[in-house]
Amino acid sequence: MIRPLLVLCKALLLMLAMPAAAHTMQPGIATLSFDADATRIQLRLSAEVILAGVDATEFDDTDLVTGAAGDRLAALRALDDAALAARLAAQPAWIGGVSLTAAGVRQRLTLEGTEVESQPDLELPRFTTVTLTAPAVESATLGWAREYGALVVRVEGSDYNAFLLAGDTSDALQAEQAAMTSVEVIKKYVLSGIAHIVPMGLDHILVVAGLFLFGAGRGALIAQISVFTVAHTVTLALASLAIVTLSPSIVEPLIAASIVYVGVENTLRSGRTALGRRLALVFAFGLLHGLGFASVLSEFGLEDGAFWVSLISFNVGVELGQLLVIAPLALLLGTWAARQTWYRAAVQIPASLGIAGVGAFWVLERTVLG
User: Fold this and answer.
1) Which end of the chain is more exposed for a tag (fewer CB within 10 A), N or C?
2) Structurally, how many domains does the chain consist of?
3) Most distant pair of Cα atoms in the chain: their distance
4) 4: in domain
5) 43 and 99 in one domain?
6) Residue 60 domain flag
7) Which domain holds residue 168?
8) Predicted TM-score of the model (pTM)
9) Cα gap 220→282, rounded to integer Å
10) In whole angstroms, what is the distance from residue 233 CA to residue 291 CA?
11) 256 phi/psi in degrees, rounded to 5
12) pLDDT tens figures, 288-323
């Protein structure tokens, strides 16, 4: 049994040499400008996802969408840029998912312009920038439908930069928007760090679950989580400083492969006898996951003038997210259960193989099936 599983892992890793791509769900980006003649919202979004009626909170990769929604999404992806722009203008109902409220009154939004960013490679996501206009106001809040996913909010001409979870509403915004206070920066990035583990980071959740399942010993778990944390903190910082950059089309399949390896190794080895070698691998995988966090963080950037506070706060949020994963596992499968004779055969091996199976699917989906 051991040899075939190791061969499988090696084969999956070798497949990463092939061109890789994935339609990873990305947050929308809204830039508000308060002009004398009108209030404008420039939105960068995935038009295909919104028009297809896909709930962005249910998927971290649109290639996982199936059924009627998946068929609609595939048909929209096949449209050329001009046809997609025309479809967006012809189906304005989606604008109802965007709200601009001033003095307690929801403002009427009108589609002013649409520009589809040309993407000749259909295996890569295509983005569209639309401009919505409303009557001129001095201050307003921006709302975003829950099914549209997360949203980055910016104000033109200011350093303001906020991250809204799905369905949230922004603070009151205005032309001379003040930069966030240190407390606001910490709150923003801690919450976004948590969100990128629970519920948005299923791949990271599976890795953390795999680390938990490796061994019952509390020391082994703490050692693995600590090494994983140090590693992803290093690459997150290096990538945020633009010292290290790696395309998501490479990073995402490698992250999936790390999930496979963690799951398979759990079925082959357990306990302290393999902990030293395991920690070296966990460190390497943590470096990869740090690059994954960095690609997400780059979507909404780090706060100007508060780089290190933003970065550290985001990382704290990631750690809190990991604890949210580990806590219920520890309650359900704590020391008592792990000491039982049935634990390895009934829990550790089946759960680890399940994790490896999901990771293997993602490797295929992000490479040859992408």
Assistant:
1) N
2) 2
3) 73
4) no
5) yes
6) yes
7) 28-179
8) 0.59
9) 12
10) 9
11) -60, -40
12) 888 887 776 766 666 666 778 888 888 888 888 888
**pLDDT per position as a tens digit, 228-273:** 888 888 888 888 777 887 777 788 888 888 899 888 888 887 555 5
Looking at residue 131, its amino acid is T
For residues 217 and 331, the answer to whether their CB atoms sit within 8 Å is no
- Indicate left, alpha or beta for 91 from its phi (over 0: left) and psi (-120 to 50: alpha): beta
Q: Same domain, yes or no, for 220 and 288? A: yes
92, 157: one domain: yes
Q: Please indicate, yes or no, whether residues 120 and 49 belong to a single structural domain of this protein.
A: yes
Do 136 and 47 have their domain in common? Answer: yes
Rounded to 5°, angle at Cα 14 from 362 and 205: 30
For 97, the token pair is 């998912």
Output the six-digit token pair for 142. 């921006």
Residues in the chain, how many?
370
Q: Quote the CA–CA distance of 34 and 158 in Å, as a whole number.
A: 11
Residue 243 within any structural domain of the chain: yes
The amino acid that residue 149 corresponds to is G
Structure token digits, residue 276: 């030293």
In a domain, 189, yes or no: no
Sheet with 173-174, strands from edge to edge, namely: 105-106, 98-102, 139-144, 173-174
